[in-house]
Amino acid sequence: MNWHISCVLSKTAVGDHLELVSYVHLFDSCSQDSFAVYAILVDLLKNVKAVKPQITGALLRSDGAGCYHSNTLITPLHRIYELSGIKPLR
Predict the structure, then answer these.
(1) 26-50 pLDDT per residue, tens
(2) Which candidate among 32, 68, 73, 80 keeps its CA 20 to 30 Å from the CA of 87?
(3) pLDDT at res. 72
């Protein structure tokens, strides 16, 4: 089984409190490459936008796995923004 865990840290609507929400994508079988990461990012950011429509940008961090370091993932960042409404900033 393959999994991808994402944590979204944002400010609450009231006050300056921080809110942490974790998302888990589970797969019976999946190649862990930049194409899979792209699909997960689009799905994740669409879900975040549905729950918190005021979010317009995202700072992305990774564990440094090889699937995050490729032109195949960097090139479609603008398309991720078009599909989700959240712009990857880093």
Answers:
(1) 988 877 777 888 888 999 999 999 9
(2) 32
(3) 67
Please say whether the beta carbons of 10 and 18 come within 8 A: yes
Q: Which CA distances in Å does 15 have to 7, 9, 11, 12, 18?
A: 21, 15, 8, 6, 9
Whole-number Å distance between alpha carbons of 10 and 20: 7
Nearest to 74 by CA among 34, 44, 28, 43: 34
Structural contact between residues 25 and 38, judged by C-beta atoms closer than 8 angstroms: no
E-state strands within the chain: 2-11, 18-27, 57-58, 87-88
Q: Any idea what DSSP says for residue 4?
A: E
10 close to 51: Cβ distance less than 8 angstroms: no
